[in-house]
Amino acid sequence: MKTDILSMTLPELTSAVEALDLPKYRAGQIYRWLHKVGVSDFSEMTDLPLLLRERLNDSFVIFSCNIEKKLVSEYDSTVKYLFSLHDGEFIESVVMKYKYGYTVCVSSQVGCRMGCRFCASTLSGVVRNLEPSEILSQLYAAERDLNVRISHIVLMGMGEPLDNFDNVMRFLELITDENGKNISMRHISLSTCGIVPGIKKLAEKDLQLTLSVSLHAPNDTIRSEMMPVNKKWPLPELISACKAYTAKTSRRISFEYALVAGRNDSEACARELAVLLKGMLCHVNLIPVNEVAETGCKESKPEQVKKFSDILSRRGFAVTVRRRLGSDINAACGQLRRSAEKRVKETT
Ligand code: SAH
Q: Per the residue annotation, which of 105, 119, 282, 333 is the catalytic one?
């Protein structure tokens, strides 16, 4: 078994290099190629002697994402990738262009086991966690392909980041490392469906990232119907963990709320939500749900979205209605992988 070199920190790589009887400075060179340049093969490390590149290739592997499919929106240049991994699994990532720069939305798991009723990523459960290297290489592959520098990251692709806690923490350590891509923690958002022990553990780390919590409902009855995770950690526990998170980190939490017609988008729901979040340092992000055929969820009408948003704004909440980027290629997150897996199954 070769070692996953892209998941190693610089000190770990330095020890590994020394164990191979190589001078220490080689570690810095290799790390720069891996993380600053983002190469996917040792042969690209052109300032290393050929023999050394071969030795590295014998001991280590660089996990990279191969582009299986790339969809570019005609409206706003949003790019959606279907990547294949070294074991033939598929994941999705999206690159969006905003005024402040490029943002990549990365996956943290192959599939997901959280079972949210409206979500395509979870329809066939979780296959496995992604390694830190596999989360990183989504960004590296996209930067290489588009020839741009990505400055912002959202962990909002497939999977539940707090269900893959250690690998996600290591990913954060590597991506913010000044010897690597050096992305600011303040430019990173991590989204969770509400794993309370994970939120508590994250609070202890006291990071400057933005925590997004997928709320989607103002009470336990509706939330448990939409999100099975709520049965384990109901709203009182979740909200109290969020308050503790803000107390510890002084960071504003962003609550995500996908509006599903007739389910959670009534004016009564908006008022109940305002009571639930009263007094919290937070932001509410409303998202008309992406319709996924298998889920039967229908998106709220624009006038309903407006009413919902107005009720919250009038009560003093910072509210945004998420801009729909790449709506022509969207095939709501998780759907590209589903169709690819189906194709593989049909042909084997
Ligand atoms: N597991 C994490 C992160 C991945 S999902 C989480 O649950 O937060 C990223 C966001 O997309 C979450 O807010 C999720 O609830 C939302 N989402 C999933 N399916 C959706 C859909 N069909 N329409 C709109 N938002 C959706």
A: 333
User: Residue 44 in contact with residue 58, Cβ under 8 Å?
Assistant: no
| Smallest CA separation from ligand 1 atom 13, residue | 214
- Assign domain 66-347 to its CATH architecture: Alpha-Beta Barrel (3.20)
pLDDT digit string (tens) for 173-207?
A: 999 999 999 999 999 999 999 999 999 999 999 99
| C-alpha closest to that of 121 among 330, 334, 294 | 334
Separation of CA 298 and ligand 1 centre (Å)? 15
pLDDT reported for residue 348: 45
Ligand 1, CB within 6 Å, residue ranges: 116, 118-119, 156, 160, 191-193, 214, 256, 258, 287, 289-290, 292, 332
Q: Is 225 noted as a catalytic residue in this protein?
A: no
Q: What is the pTM of this model?
A: 0.95
Q: Is there a contact between 249 and 202 (Cβ–Cβ < 8 Å)?
A: no
Rg of the chain (C-alpha set): 21
Q: Are 161 and 108 spatial neighbours (Cβ–Cβ below 8 Å)? A: yes
Residue ranges of the chain that CATH labels 3.20.20.70: 66-347
- Residue numbers in the chain where pLDDT is lower than 70: 324-325, 327, 330-335, 342-348
